[in-house]
Please model this.
Amino acid sequence: MQRDKHIMSAFDRDLESIQAEVMRMGGLVETAIADAARALETSDEALADEVRRRDRDIDHLEVQINESAARLIALRAPRATDLRLVLTVIKVASALERVGDYAKNMAKRTHLLAQMPTIPGAGLALRRMTEAVSTLLRDALDSYVRRDATLAAEVRARDIEVDQMYNALFREFLTHMMEDPRNITACMHLHFIAKNVERMGDHATSIAEQVLYLVHGTLPEDPRPKSDSVAAVNLGGAG
Model:
């Protein structure tokens, strides 16, 4: 009995250490989103380069978290409920890494857009969209730390707001392209960015769904709320 208690204590301690790394990763990702949006809005190419460099730290943390989780499984042989905790950590880290990649993609296009005609209001609109996604991500991570299924469900429902912002931006870019063909290339890049930000929201929602899985033992069965997309043509790709 005492030995089992000691093993569980060691498991909890190791898991707490891994989860601290996940939260550190989340902080880096939130900073990357904010800096990428600011760099785009102000054409700050130096800041964009910094976002791209710092993405290596996010990638490194994901590798470190996965290795620690694998070691925890091997050494502690967790029971079913505890194994679910460890697998959730891995999935949350994976979602954060993808969001970091999308922020890096935004930063990459800052250099190109700095050489093109400015699309009025685009930078500000994209910053507002990234702020909405950052709030979504922060709440998803808070729900994960607190095992708060109610907050996680709210995050899942609020993803539709990001979809609506994306659709509105698509309409704006389409209008600019129709008004002046010289805007087409810039609007294609901006659409690519908007789509990436929309995907950030999807990954934040995936984290919230992992919390629901963690708390209830099953993933939500109902379809994730989505806004009807007017962006049927993927102008810039989203890979």
Remarks:
- Residues 2-42 form the longest helix (41 residues).
- The helical segments are 2-42, 45-76, 80-114, 122-146, 149-179, 184-216.
- The CA atoms of residues 149 and 212 lie 5 Å apart.
- Residues 230-239 have pLDDT under 50 and may be disordered.
